[in-house]
Amino acid sequence: MEKKCSLNMILYELRNINGNFMPHFFGIVFPNLMCLLVSKTVGAQVPAEMRKEAVTSIMLTMTLVIPMAIMLIGYGALYALEIEKGIPLRMRLFGFGEKCEVTAKIAAHFILMTIAFLVFAVFQAVVMEVQRPAAGSLICLLVSLYLIGGIFLIIAHALANILQKFSLTFGVVMCLYFIMMILTGMMGMRTAQLPQVLQKVAGFLPMTYISNDFIDFWQGGSYNFMPFIQSFIFFGAAALILLYLSRMRNHHFSML
């Protein structure tokens, strides 16, 4: 009889995550460290009256690193390693079905992402000088980040199922990570400075709007959300198509 997802299963997955340094470093240490280093560099180059806004813009950009690192790199690498070692198959032999296993993994990674956001928020409040957000802007940011995290988890899960090997999955998710960081203005060059073709590609990614536009209404004001919503629809649809292809691949090999 197939077992249901339980608290013990979620705790088991959290222990698995703790054995992987990548989510902790890239999802917790790295964004805070980059915020501190970049803000010190940029802060010295802008007028004093604009420094707080510049630091806030950096902070908004660095929040994107958290879901990308934990869900795309962390989940993708860990799940691909488990597939390569045949762990999901052994779990099924002990009555833990795919639904139970994946549900526990999702819960564990969202818990880690929430912890990472809390650490990041405390660091910003204590160490960094950032503008106080309007309540609506903060809620919008948090909802967007969790949605982005969910989409990245779907992409990572699908890629791991398609590629079946840790080395291949890790290479692909790292390439996606750095490409998206470049396109969305997270590597020091703003999206508007990229060639027109790359700007159009970046327009399909919701991270682009958070990195480049959210500073404009961080303390309130109006904003045209339609391109942002459209980017979520495209990004989510691409992730679901990739997930469908991964399930079709697994079904095909299970029939052989």
Write the layout of secondary structure elements.
Elements: H1 7-18, H2 21-43, H3 48-63, H4 65-85, H5 87-93, H6 98-126, H7 135-163, H8 166-183, H9 196-202, H10 206-213, H11 226-255
Contiguous uncertain segments of 5+ residues:
252-256
Mean pLDDT: 87
Oligomeric state of the chains? Answer: single chain
Largest sheet: none
Q: Number of helical segments?
A: 11
The total strand number stands at: 0
Q: What is the overall silhouette?
A: globular
**Amino-to-carboxy terminus distance:** 25 Å
* CA gyration radius, whole angstroms: 19 Å
Summing up helix and strand content along with how strands pair, one would put the structural category as mainly alpha
Instruction: Estimate what percentage of residues fall within beta strands.
Output: under 5%
Could you spell the SSE succession in H and E letters? HHHHHHHHHHH
Which percent bin holds the helix content? Answer: over 70%
